[in-house]
Design brief:
This protein is α+β, with helices and mostly antiparallel strands. It contains two helices and seven strands. The longest helix is centred in the last third of the chain and has 27 residues.
C-alpha cells in the first residue's frame, strides 16, 4: 500500500475555479472562507495521494491573502508536498487569479497545512518519506521542517503555562 518514499511530482495537484456571485461578498470579492475550503480540499487530496490513506487536517500554519479575487476571475490552486515527518505531512498551496480575457496572473493567497495519515482504526499511521529532487523542493522542505519544529516548541511552552 505505502512505498517507502515518493517524490513531490507523484502527489502534486492543480485545479481551477471560476469565481461566481455566490462565492463573493457584498463588495464583489471572493469570501476568504470559500477560498480556504478549496485550499483545504486540494491540500487534503495531495496528502491522501502521497500516503495512500485517509488524512485529517491538523493545522493551518499560515494563510495569507495578498490580493482580492473578483467575480469572473479564474482561480488556479497549485498544491504540493513540502515536508513529511513520521505520521504528518505539510502541504503548500499557492492560489493565483487569472484574468480570462488578458491572461494576466496574480498570486492571491498562500497557505501551509499539516495533515496526519490515519490507519484503519483512525489512529496515526506512518507515511512514505519525501524524495527531494530540486533546490526549490529542498528549500520548501527545510522551511517546513523549521515550521514543524517551531510549532512543537510553541506547544510545549504553552502547555507549561496552563
Amino acid at each position: 500500500m505505502n512505498s517507502s518514499a515518493k517524490n513531490t511530482k507523484e502527489s502534486a495537484m492543480e485545479t481551477r475555479y471560476l469565481i461566481m456571485p455566490n462565492h463573493t461578498n457584498h463588495q464583489g470579492t471572493a469570501f476568504g472562507g470559500t477560498i480556504m475550503s478549496w485550499i483545504d480540499m486540494i491540500a487534503a487530496m495531495v496528502a491522501q495521494k502521497h500516503c495512500g490513506r485517509e488524512v485529517v487536517t491538523v493545522c493551518v500554519e499560515r494563510i495569507t491573502f495578498e490580493s482580492p479575487v473578483n467575480i469572473g476571475d479564474h482561480l488556479i490552486l497549485k498544491s504540493s508536498m513540502n515536508y513529511v515527518g513520521n505520521t504528518s505531512m505539510e502541504v503548500g498551496v499557492s492560489v493565483i487569479k487569472e484574468n480570462p480575457f488578458t491572461g494576466e496572473c496574480v498570486k492571491t493567497t498562500s497557505a501551509y497545512l499539516t495533515f496526519v495519515a490515519l490507519d484503519e482504526n483512525k489512529k496515526p499511521a506512518k507515511v512514505p518519506q519525501l524524495i527531494i529532487e530540486t533546490e526549490e523542493e529542498q528549500r520548501r522542505f527545510d522551511n517546513a521542517k523549521i515550521r514543524a519544529e517551531s510549532r512543537k516548541e510553541l506547544l510545549k511552552k504553552l502547555k507549561k503555562k496552563e
